[in-house]
Amino acid sequence: MKKKLLSILAAVALTGSYSCTNLTENVLDEASVSGLSNQQLADGNIAPVYALLPNIFLHTNYFALQEISTDEAILPYRGGTDWGDNGIYLALHQHTTTSTDPNLLSTWNNLVQSLSRSVSAISALPTVKDGSAQVYLAEARGMRAYYNLMLLDLFGIVFVKEDPQSTSAILRGEAAYNYVLSELLAVEPNLLTTVGPGRLSKGAAWGLLARMYLNAAVYRNRTATSFTFQSADMDKVVEYCDKIINSGQYQLVSDYFTIFNQDNHSNKELIFAVDQRAELNGNNRLAYFSLSGNQFPIPAYPAANGTDGPAITPDFYQSWAQAYSPKDPTVDPRFYRQNMSIYSNPADSCVSANDYNINRGILRGQQYGLLRVNGAFVRCANGNYKVGKLFNVTRNLPTVPVNFTEQVNFTVAGSDYNTGYRVEKYEFSKKSTSGRNLGDADISILRLADVYLMRAEAKLRKSNDAASALADVNTVRAARTFPTAPPALTSMNLDLLFRERGFELYWEMVRRTDMIRFGKYEGTWTEKTNTDVRKRLFPIPQTAIDGASNIPGYLTQNEGY
C-alpha cells in the first residue's frame, strides 16, 4: 500500500491546481470510477491531502516566510541584479512585505488548496468500504487542522468547513486556536503509530499539540506587549512531549547531518516530514538555494550548481562565535561538517566520483570544489576529478575567488556574490541534474530534538525549572557525538534556550515562530529595524481578498496592512 500511495501522491502533485478562499474542490464521484478496488479508492482520496506539501515547503514559499523574515537568513540583490524580484526578499527581511508579494500568494494558495483537498477527502472517505478508510479519515481531518495551524501562524486566520460545496466560516484569535486544537485532539486517538514520517501519525499529532500549547499565548493575543504563558498550557506541552519521548519510537542520532541526507526517510529522529522520496521533479531546492553558482556538488552532472541565494546574517553567526569563544564554532558538530580533505590538506586535489561530497553546515571563507572548464569537469591523470580553489567563473569574474565573508547587507558591497556565510544543511541530491530538481531529502516538519527543546521551554516558562530544562538541552547536545559532542552547558534560561534552538534548528522553518514567542521579532538585526508588532502576521494576499469581495466583510485584511 505504501508504494501505491507514493505513486498516487506523485501523480496528484504533478497535476495540482490552485484555488482561493472559497476552497472549492470537485469531489470524485465514486460511482463513476470503474475498475478500482476499495483500497485504491481510499488511497486516491488521501493522496491529494498530502500532495502539495512539497510546494508549500518550496524554498521561496514557507522557507522564505519563516526564515528570511528573521535573523537567520538574508537575501540581498546578488551583484545588483540576481534575486531582485522587485524587492520582495528585501521587504521580507525588513518586515515591510505587502499584500501583493507573489511568494506570499503562492504559500496562501497552496495552503487553502490543501485545505480544500482535505475537506473533499473527509467528505468522501466515510463511503469507502476499506479497512484503511477510517485511518485515512483521521489523517485527512488532522491534516486539515495542520494546514489551518499554518494559516493561523502566518496569517492569523483559519477556515472552518465540512461540506465541500459550502462557504467556509472564518475564525481568528482565540476561537481559531481553540478550533484547531479541538480538531487535533479529536483525531489523535484514531491515528496510527506505525506509519512513517511522511504521514500524520500519532507521534506527529502529539508534537503538533505540544507546539500549539507552547504558542497558545501568542495565538490568543498576537500583538501583546508580553505574552502570558499559562501553567495549564505548559503542563500540556510537557505531557505531549513526554508521550513522544517515552514512546521509544524515535531516537536522537549521533551524526547530526544524516537527519538531512537524501536518504533520510528512515532516520529515527524524524517524527513528521515532507516525503520527498517520490520524484516530484523540483520541489526540494533547499540544498542549492544558498550555494555559490560556482559550486558544483555532483560529478555526474556538470550543470548542477548553486544559485548564490540567501546567507545567514552576521548577527546569527555571532551567536555561534560568542557562545564558543575563544574556540571556533566548529567544536559544535551541528555548525559544520568538513567532507573535502583539501581544506586541511591541499595535496588532496584528486577525488573519485564516489568519494566526492561537499562540506555541510555553515560554509565560511574560501571554497574549494570541482574545477570546470568549458562546461566540463577537469580530470586528473588517473581519471579522478580535480578539485581546487573556486573562482566566480559563472559570474564572468574568473579572477575573483569564491570566498564567503561574514558581512552581508543591502548595500552594493554587502550584496556581492561572496557576501554572507552560506548554509548547506540538506544534502545535495545525487540525482539532481540541475540542482533545481529531484531533491530526495525529506524536509523535517517535526523531529525529536525539537520535542526535547519544547519540553525544556515549557518547564522554564511554568516554574523556571532550570535544572530540568538544562538536562533536556544537554541530552540533545550529548547525542551529537559525530565527530565529537559539543561541550555540555552549565546553566539555562530563556535566552540561552532561544540560542540553543537556533543552533539545533537553524533553517528548519521555525525561526519566525520562535522569535515571536520569545519576544525577539521586533528586535534589530542586519537590515531590519521595524518594531511594529502587527508585522507578527503577514498580510492576507490582496488577490484572495478581491476574490471574496462578493461576500461583504467576509475576508478582511490584517491590521497594519
Automatic annotation (TrEMBL):
UniProt cross-references to InterPro entries, sorted A to Z: SusD_RagB_dom, TPR-like_helical_dom_sf
Cell compartments where the protein resides: Cell outer membrane
Keyword match Membrane: yes
Main location: membrane
Alphabetically ordered keywords of this record: Cell outer membrane, Membrane, Signal
Domain spans labelled RagB/SusD: 288-530
Any one cellular-component term (Gene Ontology): cell outer membrane
A Pfam family annotated for this UniProt entry: SusD_RagB
Signal peptide feature range: 1-21
Family: Belongs to the SusD family.
Protein name stated in the entry: RagB/SusD domain-containing protein
